[in-house]
Amino acid sequence: MNDGYEGVQSGKCYLVFLNDNNASGEMSIISNDNGVIDLSDISGAAYYDIAVKAAVEYMSDLPDAQKKEILSMDEIKRSDNIGMELTSDGSVIVEQK
Question: Would you call 20 helix, strand, or coil by DSSP?
Answer without folding.
Answer: coil
